[in-house]
């Protein structure tokens, strides 16, 4: 990463600390009090050796003991305060970052999720954010405290003996011969290990999510081999990371132990010749080991922050991905709409893809039932996505009761739309909560009425706990037809004026399809309905049928009119099931 890019990412990461700057200041102040107290102790030891031991006086000794106890209490007290401040700062800053990423994730919508797997998004929310917690909790406060500690400590060392202080220079040079290389290697492999952990977690998620397919196809060994392969790669990087981390620590200890031996030799000579007191020599030695540990730790801290910025860069790039669909700053106000929809010369193509719709025009009157038919890839489902503003047309516009939909807020638009997809998502909550998803503040009577309207009430009562039955993840305890009727109950309780059905019965068996169709007929009554159809038998009673080919309206009319024309729709009807649907 370039230095200017590194700084941008670093300052973006630190921006989440801004609302908690007083906690950060408190954290730093606590660190200063603790390090200041620690720096006083060697001077007290010097005073004890040089003054109290020689004078053999009791009172100064008692005062010294009392002062040491006070310092210990001070260190313990401020360590506790620092620990609380660290935890609060870490959790709140990382929480704000997670919420920021989650909010942006929601804004990206369909365009993002159709290109990126769920495991990748989970890795961003969990692994990367969790890694950055260390920056807020430890690395940044420590770097500031250690920098100040080093300056004060070196100053005290020079005040004791400038000659001995010169040994600090070759000790640091000895560390810098291999230190930065080992730090870089350990950090580099640490980053690779983090990436491998993300890929491993993605694979574990995919394995768990697809467990039914894996079992159905007796592919447990195949799946396990892939998991083992990912873990083997992760394990390999872990070994390399810890290997270089070991040598990084060994090099650090070796450098200041060698310097320590030199200080003991030179300091002993100075002490024996009277050039330095014994107490000053002991105090200097303590300062030296503290300072060398801190100075080498600063290098580690900077390197670790550099690696963290590589991980933070993923979040930074993600948070700067522009949303394909933007909500206008000033939107028109709308409540309930009659449901008149007009497509005016709408063209659309996905990013870097061929044209899906080309000058598509269609007018749908309030309460009309319109079916979209045609082979796959001709833009039928795309039309529903455009109505819901999951994407915007590349050309032309869509009007809802004479109001361009891009002028409406997402909330106002989508509250007036009711989607029923081919695959219904049910939450791992109770039946009641899943129905309430359509209208969270609905009463119990409304829930039951919606279930009855969707022909779901009877089978719900047969469940172990009725409306309180927990459905399990994705509603695994229900059949396909039962899931669809729960989703239709959601629409009844939501009561939108416009219904959008995307092949809602395509994956159901004949019996389930009849049950769901009966519920859909009741749902569509009096509402504007757009249906992406795959069976002609389900749309014979529709007011208008639109045959789409290559993104254009090829034929349109009611069922009898299109059959009478003996055109493309008639030929499709001979097979009953539409080609490619």
From TrEMBL:
Main location: membrane
Any GO molecular function: ATP binding
Record keyword Transmembrane present: yes
InterPro entries in the record: AAA+_ATPase (IPR003593), ABC1_TM_dom (IPR011527), ABC1_TM_sf (IPR036640), ABC_transporter-like_ATP-bd (IPR003439), ABC_transporter-like_CS (IPR017871), P-loop_NTPase (IPR027417), Type_1_exporter (IPR039421)
Keyword Ligase attached: no
A cellular-component GO term for this protein: plasma membrane
Protein name: ATP-binding cassette, subfamily B
Keyword vocabulary terms for this entry: ATP-binding, Membrane, Nucleotide-binding, Transmembrane, Transmembrane helix
Residue stretches making up the ABC transmembrane type-1 domain: 25-304
Membrane topology: Multi-pass membrane protein
SUPFAM superfamilies listed in its UniProt record: ABC transporter transmembrane region, P-loop containing nucleoside triphosphate hydrolases
Family under the similarity heading: Belongs to the ABC transporter superfamily.
Protein's cellular compartments: Cell membrane
Domain ABC transporter: 341-575
Organism listed in the record: Gracilibacillus orientalis
Spans traversing the lipid bilayer: 20-41, 61-85, 139-158, 164-182, 256-289
